[in-house]
Every structure is written in C-alpha cells, then in structure tokens.
Amino acid sequence: MQVDSVAYANAYYAAIDPNNERDTLAKFKAKNGFGTAGAGITEETIIIGDQRDLGYGRKMTARRDSNTGNIAFVVENYMVGGYGGYSTFSLQAAIVGENKWHLGTNAIEFSVVESGASNPTPNAIKFVKLYTYDPITGARLTAANLDGRGNKALPTICISCHGGRGDPLTPSGLFPRISNSASGARGDVGAQLHAFEPASFDFSTLSGYTRAALEGKIKTINQMVLCGHNLPNGTATPTGFAEDTCRRVANPNEYQGAAAAHLKNIYGGNGLPNASSETTDSYVPTSWTAAGQVDLYKKTVTQACRVCHGIRGTGNQSDINFEDFTAFDGYADRIRAHVVDRGNMPLAKLVYDKHWSTPDMYNTMANYLSTKGFSGGAIKPGRAVADPGPDRVVKTLTPALSAGMSLFSTSYSWTVTSVPGGQTASLSSSTAANPTLTVSGPGTYTVQLVTANATSTSTAKTLTLEVNPALAWDPAALRFNPDIRTVLQQGINGNCISCHVSGQNISTTSGVPPIYYDDFDRAGTGNGADATNRSWLYTEVRGRINFTDIVASPLLRKPSGNHHNGGLRTGFNTSAAVGDAARTDYDKFVAWILNGAPE
Length: 599
What we know:
The protein is of the alpha+beta class. The protein has 16 helices and 13 strands. The radius of gyration is 26 Å and the shape is globular.
C-alpha cells in the first residue's frame, strides 16, 4: 500500500521540510527555539500517563511564539511492560527519563511551509506537520510502531487520529495536494491538534508531577492548541474572548468542528474562566440525548471514538466526527464492518483491547447494531465473514467469482441459489476460493457464499449477477481513459463535474470538494487534457477505491448518496436492481474496479 511506504513518508517530509532543517530531533528543536526565552515566547513541559490512548508515559514540551504564531510540540514516549496496556511504571520511566524504556519521540509543528520543489510559492496559511524521531540517535524516521502492531509510515500513522487525508502520490512522486485546503500546500493533509484532557490522564503522586501541580501548565498548553483551531466560518471578529485572538476564521470548506468548543468547555466555556479543568466524560451532544442514545455515547463513543473522530471532517462534510447522532447512524453499516467484522476499530490497541474486555462498551455497541439489523455485535472479531464482492453486471456467460474479500476465512462453500426460467448454471468448483460460474443465457442469477475457519462458520452472503451478452459496454474492456473519466466529467446531467471542478474560490464558495475531476493543469505541462495530466487525474481517482472492501470505496459511496455533499447522483441509485438504467454508472464503476481499475 503506497500510503504505508518509505516513498510516501519521504515525499511528505520533502514537502513539509524542503531544506531538511528538521531531519534530526536536535535540528527540529533548534528550528523551533526550544529551550530559549524571549518576548512573546511560552514554553511548558508536563509528564503524564496516557492511560486511555496508547498507554505511554509521556514527557510533552509545548512552545508557542506569539510573534509568528508558530506552535511546536516535542513528545517523548516511554513504555514499560509491552504494548496494549498501561502501567504506572511507564509514567515513572518518563519522569526519570529512563532511556531503556524510551520508544521514540514524536514532534508536531504548526507553521507556514517553506518554499521548495513541492511548494514553490506557498502562502501564509499555517498547518499541522508531523514528525517522528529515533529515541537513541534522534534521526528522523519514515515509520513508527506506536502500538505494537508493526511499523507504519508517516504521516498515515498520525493522521489516523489527528485527522486528515492520505491521498496517493502524484505519478512524478510529489506528495498530493488537497484541492480545497486553505494553504494549497503539498504536505497539508488537514490534520488537527489534539486537546489535552486531564481527566483522561494518569498523574504521579511525586511533588511537581501531581495533577494539581500540572493543571496550570496543561491549561497553558491547551490555549496553544486552541490557537491551532480555526474559528468557524462566518464568525465575527474580534469575538471578545482573549483566547480567540490567535485564531484564524476558517473558510467554508475547512474543518470547523466541535473540538475547540470541547476544549473551552473543559475550562468553563468562553473566556476559559476556570483555572483547572473539568471532566468531559459527562458531555453528551443534544442530538444523542434526543435520540435516546446517551448510554451509547457515554459508554462507547466517549471512551473509544471521540478523541480521534472529534477532529475529523471538513466544513463540507463533518458526519464522521460523531457529534450528530443522525450522521453517526448513517455509518451503521461501516461501524459494523470496522468494529465487529474487520476489527480495525478502535484503532489503538489499548483502546481496542479495552473495548473488547469491557462488557459495558461492546454490549452497548452490540445493542445499537442490533437495532440496525446487524447481529453478532458482541462477538470479538476473528469469526469468518463471507464476502463474494459487490453485485454486478456481466457480459460473459462464464463470469469469474471470488471470495477474496472474505475475512478470517480458510474454507469456502458456493451454491447457485436462483436461475432465470429456462436457463442453467453450474460452478467449476463449489469449494474453491475463486471458481467460475457458467450460465446458459441472459438473466438474473444469484449465488451464495459461506466461509469458515477452525472455530466459526459465516452467515451466508448472496451475490447477484445480471448476465447480459447484449450489453452495450464490455465490463472487461472498461478503462479510466476514456470510460470512467467520461462519467466523472460528463456523465448523466453533468454528474460530478458540477461540483468537482477547479477554479472555485475556496475562501468564499462553500461545498468545494477536496478533489477535482476536470482537466486542469495538475502537472504543469500547460495542457490539462494531455496524457500526463490525465494520468495524474487517474492516480487521484484510483486513490478513492478500497480494493479490500469495494462497496466502501468513496468513489462508489459518495455519488450513491452516502455522506455526500452532492447527494445521490443520477446513474448511481443502488436501490435499483442490478443492471437497471438508474444505476448504470454505478455498475460501470464496479465492473471497472473488479477488473483492477486499469488506466
């Protein structure tokens, strides 16, 4: 996977640090002035136990220069006893600075990017940049192992919780640019700074490291964090509150979620009147209360989801921040897939283990999922899950089948369950992972897949195939250029290009998406419609495909009306039968993806 590669990390660092002024921890500290005093400089250090996230003992130093508005953090991570749990010994190791238990150092900078090959003419908009360093040599690293699940490349491992996008590199190897970002810079992934919630930390009883001793410092650091969060678009300035004077007003398309409001609430709201923090675990958004889902929010979302999801989303689409219950409810199928089937959420191992070892957490989620028609929500991931792939239109009388997207499965059982009148169908094998179905003629056929492993058997999953030898387009012959590109750029009633088009003023126009589909000059060749630029467009579009769970691809979910600012687009109505004209473009996209999404 490209976003988890050394090349991806190197392209990221080349974009955010073009002159290698931060390629060691010592140089990062020097560049940001750590340890030096001066007018307008604030620097604080705290040492806490991160008992509800990654389980580290953490020594955090935060610094803000009010003269430039730059903010920087250096975080030393210590762990005693292995990943997946929290021990007070990790906190003690951080206090004494025991190198034996020092796993690594992360660093964050909120600043303007310097000019370089990736960003020849950057503007003055600051954004979050993410780094990690070797605990012994201080050399900058391209990957880190944060929770014992193996090394993962920068910045992907960071944006999984700090928010943002992990789009593919350009064909020339440059880090991608988010089309609607205020900075317009390569390397601006849209990440956000996290608030520090003392109620979620463990504190030492040693003098100078108690909660009482550190509350004032944490509040100062949180005021720095607040400076990194934009004021919502349309906010009249000055707001009348001192803590907002350092905050820029967001354009209509940027993140402007509830994280800043939550941070303020920790200290009593606007003006931050309280010297010490208040617990936020009792907070429940009004929409969750109205829906009768207080338990789900407090027992599961607050404990396992909110820290990361709270800083996700944009001004266009913030459903994934889980602040609104209706938006959360719209993700029920994906929550089931990620939490129960795949087991890749909650993301951090400590939180994942806590979720599945705490009946109040997993049973509350299971009860909710049962109301959406999903059973088995209290069973820890690892059971067999059958997935024969998306329903599809085929032209051939010998379509290939695949159980390749099934989960935790080692054996397979296929059955033909329905055949059109007067037709026949047979499988080349009923137990192979990738059999061939042979049919005698056109019509709608269904097959069923059941998978198993040593300890479980899946529920049956049905696949519908619409066989049409007279189909005007050949699924096996579809290519991005021109077939898929034509749908994106023209389609039915100008489907996508009406919004996904360059040249919009992102400062004043709302609803500007993060990717454009028109032929603008991406590669700087002078001709946006030439082969080079269309190859760049292909790369961007391919990045919106999930090959391990095809129906979850944003390229399919968005135009079919799932969490899409543009709603349901013509030709993508998945409530229509496979092969129906109302879903022609959806069926084309599925066929192209199943064929490997060739250019």
